[in-house]
Amino acid sequence: MPLNVAVVGSGLSGFYTVAALLKSAPDCRIDVIERLPTPFGLIRGGVAPDHQKTKNVWRAYEKSALQEAVRFFGNVEVGRDVTIDELKRMYDAVVLAVGSPLDRNLGIPGEDKKGVFGAASFVGWYNGHPDFRTLDPNLDVKAAAVIGNGNVAIDCARVLAKTPEEMATTDLTAYAAEAIHNAPLTDIYMCGRRGPGDAKFTNVELREMGELLDCTPVVDARQLDEGVPADLDDRDRRLRERNLETLREFTAQTPAGRKKRLHFMFYASPVEVLGGERVEGIRMERTAVRDGRAVGSGEYFEIPCGLVIAAIGYDGTPFPGLPFDRKRGVVVHENGRIGDGVYAVGWIKRGPTGVIGTNKHDGDLAAEQILENGPAGGKPGRDALEAHLRGKGVRWVSYADWKKIDAAEIAGAHAGAPRRKFSSVEEMLALLG
Ligand SMILES: Cc1cc2nc3c(=O)[nH]c(=O)nc-3n(C[C@H](O)[C@H](O)[C@H](O)COP(=O)(O)OP(=O)(O)OC[C@H]3O[C@@H](n4cnc5c(N)ncnc54)[C@H](O)[C@@H]3O)c2cc1C
Fold first, then answer.
1. Span 364-381, pLDDT tens digits
2. Contact 252, 198 (CB under 8 A)
3. How far is the CA of 383 from the centre of ligand 1 (A)?
4. C-alpha angle 362-152-165 in degrees, rounded to nearest 5
5. Exposed, middle or buried by CB within 10 Å (0-12, 13-18, 19+), for 80?
6. How does residue 236 score in pLDDT terms, banded at 50, 70 and 90?
7. Residue nearest to atom 27 of ligand 1 (CA)
8. With a 6 A CB cut-off, is 204 part of the ligand 1 pocket?
9. Containing domain of residue 14, as a range?
10. Quick one: 94 and 156 in the same domain?
11. Are residues 310 and 326 in the same domain?
């Protein structure tokens, strides 16, 4: 009797789990259940549109998706169309791979003003995620502040800074391209409450900011004096020192006729979003790092801006019937086991950290634990799921259906671009008839 496994979520951690299961238990049957009609989670909806090389990792996941043992059930939301308890009755094992879809709040007055967005929404908007396509940020602004010193903050700043020419070979959605490229934006402020030696950007992403066609990085050389924190291991120290070197190189750049400036502002913590109904600026407090913590100095300054993007981290969301750690934004588990044949992988297990490859270990471990639990329990698996979905009138999207959407996106691309994304579920379902 085959082992029947349901993987909830078709992002990286979900597909790493599928690959690990196929390798160690080739006779299992795996159903990947995804709330969107499109697979691959943040590879499609998070990774920046101008980083197509990174996005191309989907090709490896497609190899798994096309295996006879694997079925994709897109447009099926667990919690709405089928519950975890129902899945537990249908499958020998259920793997939760649902990521961390929410934004962490800044927690400061005024953050509910129009023009303030979390990175999950803003990135989702430019990447055509159906949840955010109607975000409609007003980009008729001269200045934007991006709060955060990680790669997501850099992605947001870079997408705002690049020219139409630089974005021509990307899958930036047409509506976002129109809004961004017609914006009168000249100044982007990227603010971190700690120093440059603490910044989490990877060096490749940081260096890219010095190679933009129409944007100059602006760095205050005096902020580079403090070096890197003392308590780092050798690898981290080397990475951070490389970042400092790159920032030093930036101090030598001159605008040379470029329209936009990207201001790196370290030791600056947001305390209030200013303005009336809409954001007009952000009040910042200068900080100093003491014993590894950023502490306020009591000295304040203001950045006038019409757009604020908070890229300070993502948060998970509780699943009915599963224990949730509100503080960490993850499901409660013991080394990935939630209990009772249910496992967690990826961001909903670890929190929103790490790179693509970090999720592989979770997938390998989940597969190992599922197999350790012994032989299949004779549960019906996909036959039961299909019957359930039919009974509820759910139009699920198979992998073959997704390939039709994929083909239409590729066919609709302008010259040089990889695809023209559909961003509405209705549009995609209409295409499938
Ligand atoms: C903006 C951004 C850019 C990034 N860029 C890079 C990069 O360039 N390089 C890099 O190495 N890493 C990058 N990362 C990190 C990388 O994307 C994550 O490590 C990875 O996506 C985490 O995988 P996951 O499977 O946990 O979550 P996700 O990729 O988010 O997948 C979760 C999936 O579950 C689905 N889902 C959610 N709820 C349900 C439900 N109830 N029912 C069914 N399905 C559901 C979602 O729709 C989604 O498809 C980036 C992250 C972000 C946020």
1. 999 999 999 876 778 999
2. no
3. 28
4. 125
5. exposed
6. confident
7. 99
8. no
9. 4-101+316-432
10. no
11. no
User: Model pTM?
Assistant: 0.96
pLDDT digits (tens, 9 = 90+) for 168-219: 999 999 999 999 999 999 999 999 999 999 999 999 999 999 999 999 999 9
Which residue has the CA at smallest separation from atom 7 of ligand 1?
47
Q: Is the CB of 87 under 6 A from ligand 1?
A: no
CA 23 – ligand 1 centroid, Å: 23
12 CB within 6 A, ligand 1: yes
351 lines ligand 1 (CB under 6 A): no
Q: Tell me how many domains the chain contains.
A: 2
pLDDT-above-90 percentage for the chain: 90
Which CATH number characterizes residue 330's domain? Answer: 3.40.50.720
- What is the DSSP pairing of strand 70-73 with strand 29-33? parallel
CA angle 154-155-160, nearest 5°?
A: 95
Are 121 and 258 in the same domain?
yes
* The dihedral sign for the CA sequence 166, 171, 175, 176: negative
Query: Which residue among 314, 348, 381 closes a domain?
Result: 314
258 shares a domain with 141: yes
- Number of the ligand 1 atom closest to the C-alpha atom of 33: 43
Q: Choose which residue among 42, 75, 85 to substitute to test ligand 1 binding: the one with the highest number of ligand atoms within 8 A of its C-beta.
A: 42
Q: What tens digit of pLDDT does each residue of 305-360 get?
A: 999 999 999 999 998 889 999 999 999 999 999 988 999 999 999 999 888 889 99
| DSSP secondary structure, 148-209, as one string | -SSHHHHHHHHHHH--HHHHTTS---HHHHHHHHT----EEEEE-SS-GGG----HHHHHHT
Question: In ligand 1, which atom is closest to the CA atom of 355?
Answer: 11
